[in-house]
Amino acid sequence: MTAGSTTTRRIVHCMGTVFSFDVRPPGVSERVLDGAAALLHDIDARFSTYRDDSEISRIARGQLSLDACSPDVRFVLDECARYRELTDGYFSAYAAGSLDPSGYVKGWAIEQVSELLRASGSSHHSVNGGGDVQCVGGTAPGEPWRIGIANPRVTGEVLAVVSGTDFAVATSGVEHRGAHVVDPHTGRPSRGLLSLSVAGPRVTVADVYATAGFAMGAGAAAWAGQLAGYQVFAVSADGETWATPQAGVGRA
Amino acid sequence: MQVVVSGSTIKNVSFLQLTAVDPRSQFINSQAGPILLQETLSAQSSQIDGVSGATYTSEGYVQSLQSALDQAGIR
């Protein structure tokens, strides 16, 4: 059986979570998947706040200047600053006080993997990084991907399905780690929402918007309606759901 | 795009066409298909390929629906 004719899955434990690659025909070789896994570990080694020798840790300690860091690190920190401005400070690489760009890095890492798979000949795949998903192509030519949005109150259930080709979905919420999204303006865990999901072209942007929107809490609805190209679905603390109008989530 | 909705669990359905693009998008948006969000009442009613949810730990992943989908795909 050739590598190109079958669906391939790969699970990679990295960045404190799990990445799942789902590559549909035309597939890629195991070597390419090994390379994608190595890419994730390389990004983690350079960006992790849990590693004393990462570039981010060295920058945070003042041992590495922004001029001397790698182009990737500078790009990510520039992007973090850009999105901090675009989200009125609700997305911030300094949300918890010290430098931590991981809210950008995970989505960006997913896109890097997706780009590598693409460059290796894959036109139909999805890459899920800890609950944030980039879909490329469909499950087969003309067949959309169907990505469920997890019910934050019931493990194993989904509340909605996002379906299409070439799109991303990212979710921020309290489901598995407790209230881990901090409102950068108060320094305290955000309340008001159980989860907030964003769908649109790029998972990095969707993830940043999901983090920002979740940090806004109840105030996210007005903001969500203004996002160009990205749609929002959210679950309030009382279990009610809402979505931006174009998202087409209906209530009976 | 054909939409097939199974059972009576889908409350309402409509389409979302993505048109606006992040200027730095690496993806060609003109090829982006419509996105459909369906509100469902039970997980069982909807066949899904993946799950988006709050970030799970390596331990949390084991209990997740995504893990179940991955295991089913690997077998």
Helices and strands, with pairings:
The complex is a heterodimer of chains A (252) and B (75).
Chain A: E1 8-14, E2 17-23, H1 30-47, H2 55-60, H3 71-86, H4 102-119, E3 125-129, E4 132-136, E5 145-150, E6 158-164, E7 167-173, E8 182-183, E9 188-189, E10 193-200, H5 203-216, H6 220-224, E11 231-236, E12 241-243
Antiparallel strand pairs in A: 1-2, 2-3, 3-4, 4-7, 5-6, 7-10, 8-9, 10-11, 11-12
Chain B: E1 15-16, E2 35-39, E3 50-52, H1 58-62, H2 65-74
Antiparallel strand pairs in B: 1-2
Order of helices and strands of chain B: EEEHH
Distance between the termini of chain B: 30 Å
Strand content of chain A: 25-35%
Gyration radius of chain B, in Å: 16 Å
Shape of chain A: globular
Structural class of chain A: alpha+beta
| Helix percentage range of chain B | 10-25%
Mean pLDDT of chain A: 90
Largest sheet of chain B: 2 strands, antiparallel
What strand order characterises the main sheet of chain B?
A: 1-2
Number of separate strands of chain A: 12
Q: Which structural class best describes the helix and strand composition of chain B?
A: alpha+beta
Number of helices of chain A: 6
Q: Which blocks of ≥5 consecutive residues of chain A have pLDDT under 50?
A: none
Output mean pLDDT of chain B.
56
Strand order of the largest sheet of chain A: 1-2-3-4-7-10-11-12
